[in-house]
Amino acid sequence: MRVGLRIRSLLGVGALLLGLPSNSIAQATPTSSETRGRPGQSLAIVVNKSNPIEDLPYSELRKIFLGERSHWPSGRRIAVAMMDDGHPERQTVLRQIYRMDENGYREHFIKGVFRGDVFVAPKTLSSPIVMRKFVFNAPGGIGYLRSTDVDKSVKVLRVDGRLPDDKDYKLQIDDRAVE
Amino acid sequence: MHVSIFDLRDTLSRRSLGLLKFTLLCLLAYAPVLQGQQAEPTSDSEKQTVQLLLQRIDSLEASQKQLLDRIAKLEKAQAGSPAGVAVAASQTGMESVAPSEEQEEMTEAEKMDVNRTLLNIRGFGDFGLYGGNQKGEHTSFSLGELNLFITSNISEKFRFLTELVFEVHQDNDFEEDLERVLLEYSLNDYFKLSAGRYHSAIGYYNTAYHHTTWFQTTTDRPFLFQFEDEGGILPIHNVGVSASGQIPSGKLGLHYVAEVGNGRTSSSPNLEPVQNLVDENTHKSLNVALFSRPDTIPGLQVGFSAYRDVLFPLGSAGIGETILDAYGVLARRDFEWLNEGLVIRHSPRGDGHIFDTPGFYTQISKRFGSYRPYFRYQYVNASPNEPVFPQVGLRTGPTAGIRYDVNESVALKLQYDYTELRRQQAVSTLGLQVGFTF
Question: Which pairing describes strands A141-146 and B140-153: parallel, antiparallel, or unpaired?
Answer without folding.
Answer: unpaired
